[in-house]
Amino acid sequence: MHALELSRLPVDFWSWRLWAACRQTDGELFFSPDGERGSTKRRRERAAKAVCAVCPVRDECANYAIGNHERYGVWGGLSEHERELIWRDLGLVSSAAQTAGRAS
Ligand code: SF4
After folding, report:
1. If you take atom 8 of ligand 1, which residue's CA is the nearest one?
2. Mean pLDDT throughout 23-31?
3. How many domains, in total, are found in the chain?
């Protein structure tokens, strides 16, 4: 099959995950356990981001998480808080959600 034919193949929605660096790591590194806060959370997120930093599909992952409003976990090197800031910049957070975010 030559390049032109390859470009016509449908791209599977999740195909980028086949190259995900986190496939070889403990998935719990990327998501907060109940009650995790403060320096423990920051340390875990830093470790997860270190995996993302060398991931060949980091952009695809970040775009997926932003586009699909993934609320939890580190995706594409972005924490939950960092994605919230992006959603706010893009005007994708309702005023009710912004008020709730300020209260927490
Ligand atoms: S960017 Fe991070 S979370 Fe996304 S696939 Fe790569 S290693 Fe996994």
Report:
1. 22
2. 93
3. 1
